[in-house]
Amino acid sequence: MPAVGIAVGGSKKEYPGNLTLYVTVTCVVAAMGGLIFGYDIGISGGVTSMDSFLRKFFPSVFRKKHENQTSNQYCQYDSVTLTLFTSSLYLAALLSSLVASTVTRKFGRKLSMLFGGVLFCAGAIINAAAKNVEMLIIGRILLGFGIGFANQSVPLYLSEMAPYKYRGALNIGFQLSITIGILIANVLNYFFAKIKGGWGWRLSLGGAVVPALIISVGSLILPDTPNSMIERGRNDEARQQLKRIRGVEDIDEEFNDLVAASDESKKVQNPWTNLLKRKYRPHLSVAILIPFFQQLTGINVIMFYAPVLFNTIGFGSDAALMSAVITGCVNVAATVVSIYGVDKWGRRFLFLEGGVQMFICQAVVAAAIGAKFGVSGNPDTLPKWYAIVVVLFICIYVAGFAWSWGPLGWLVPSEIFPLEIRSAAQSVNVSVNMFFTFVIAQVFLTMLCHMKFGLFIFFAFFVVVMSIFVALFLPETKGIPIEEMSQVWKKHWYWRRFVRDTDFPAKNRGVEMGKGGRGGYA
Questions:
Q1: Where are the transmembrane segments (predicted)?
Q2: In this predicted model, what pLDDT tens digit does every residue of 169-180 receive, in sequence order?
Q3: How far apart are CA 82 and CA 311, in angstroms?
Q4: What CATH number has the domain bearing residue 207?
Q5: Could you tell me the end-to-end alpha-carbon distance of the chain, in angstroms, rounded to an integer?
């Protein structure tokens, strides 16, 4: 399958190459790094709906949940300590992603992936053995450190290995792994919750060791990317590696562009201050706004707390966990749709279609919950048809996210970073994502208690805002070699005022985007 080039800005630059079995297998193994993030998202919501877990670590929440079944359903899980258990991980991930930037740049993508796996494994073991809340939170912080390293390095690795024509599909393998991790966690929660003796939550939390070992071992056997080799002065090895992953001998043009990009990047003493230059304003804006908007779709509210949410709106604890499994299946299936369509239909189409779909579903869910629970949070008996309607529209909402803002929120920022700012910009992308994930996780249950069904309207409003942003300010990046990406900004009606021809001269087109950075969740 030859990777046919695309003309951009009058350029006819094409890089010959095939989608080889070698690069496909390599990308699949690397994408497994998303499992640790996805598994954690799924597990944390599931264990916090298990009575045995709540009784041991959060007795006040357990009492509130059971003392009066007719009490305000919106507020039964409102606990600062409970939300700190969930959200502490994301604050740790934010901090570690900043450190990971330096490790990734100076020592390669593989070492960051290894650090991510080892730290996540340590956190999983501590959580499984937890005796008190303090141990739980220490374990969560180590999990967060692991996720910060993995989310910083895996997307970059995928983008740099992938032929540009298939960059979108191979990159979304990372998001697919996240969704598979969520699904596996939901299924395990469902069965572990049934274990007599109430220790199933230990298996749920300890099970995180498995995806941690996958990414740790994977990082040891995976090859380096040519980009990373060149960045560290191993040019001869990089040339051979580029021939191998492209499946052709004629790699001179791409190799020379990578070397030029590396030479240019070495002139940058401090990539963090370099990020603030006027010519990088479009890149920095997208690196901040895309992950910011991704969290304000409300998806993490659904995926973190799906069992809690379904329990709150009247499903039994068992039924709540099963409903989370259903949404997890939808999540995986819709991500596969994105893999199929991202390089056919384009990024903007998926963003905008997903936005419309999510808005409609959030409006329907808000109306459904508002009609039954009102502002008091005390529903009458909930008929089965009502429960089915709520789950159906939440599933349609999850599908809309999973083929739009889910994978593209990681893919698009990564496609636009020049090599000289790539690691730093990727860290900004991950840090913003983790910061707002932390904020949403920390305040969600309190917001649910006070805003009630209006919380879904709150997120629906932001879906409208982010869709307008995409329509007006996000250029299409489908099928454009990263070495040519600067032309996109020069032609955009708004961003061209920040990017001049002298910033990215034609003879150095390969310099600015080097080869393929990417941004998760992620």
A1: 19-39, 80-99, 111-130, 136-158, 170-193, 199-222, 284-308, 320-342, 349-373, 385-406, 427-447, 453-474
A2: 888 999 899 999
A3: 16
A4: 1.20.1250.20
A5: 30
304-334 as b/e, with b when 16 or more CB fall inside 10 Å? bbbbbbbbbbbbeeeebbbbbbbbbbbbbbb
Distance in angstroms (rounded) separating the CA atoms of residues 37 and 35: 5
Q: Which one-letter amino acid corresponds to residue 499?
A: V
Of 209, 210, 206, 201, give the one whose Cα is nearest residue 47.
Answer: 201
Asked if residues 356 and 207 have their Cβ atoms less than 8 Å apart, the reply is no
Give domain status of residue 520, yes or no.
Answer: no
DSSP category for residue 194: T
> Left if phi > 0, otherwise alpha if psi is -120 to 50, otherwise beta: which for 89?
alpha
Burial of 136 (0-12, 13-18, 19+ CB in 10 A): buried
Residue 207 lies in domain: 21-497
With a threshold of 0.70, does the pTM exceed it? yes
In whole angstroms, give the CA distance from residue 54 to residue 26: 41
Quote the crossing angle between the two packed helices 109-128 and 80-107, to the nearest 10°.
150
Evaluate whether residue 11 is within a structural domain: no
